[in-house]
Amino acid sequence: MNRRSFLAISMAASAALLLSACGFRLRGTGSMPNLPPLTLEGDTQSDMARELATRLERQGNTGGDNAQWRVSLGSPNLDERRLGGEGRATRDHELTLSSTVSVQRLDDNAYLLNGETLSVNTRIRVNDDDLLNRETLFSDAEQSLNRELAERIIERLSALNNAS
Length: 164
Fold this sequence. Notes:
This protein has 3 helices and 5 strands. By secondary structure, it is α+β, with helices and mostly antiparallel strands.
């Protein structure tokens, strides 16, 4: 083993040790929080609600008759804000997806969350003259925001579960 490979291996091992010591862990299916069984109500036909239901099913949370929580979802609202001047050129757009969430415990009908608004946002750069690419960029950004908002709702539900 020469000196360069020894240094590379030792640096990689040091980085792994440092990251594990500070509590870092990769996000993914292994890091899904453990939530009590729940049912989804409200606007369950939106893309965001379908993404949330898919993530919960992947986690093994199917709810049904043994549900402990009722999660009511409001209709997601996508706001677009143009940033920059009024010229006909490439322009930045800020997209914000928000939805209200209420969580009710079914055994005593107590609200753990009552109409809290959760939101995520992103910025995209769009050339207003390129109509085909424009629609694709907006569609991709909206799908990404739906995934992020579903993840944010699960994180919020996890925090509620840890607090109760």
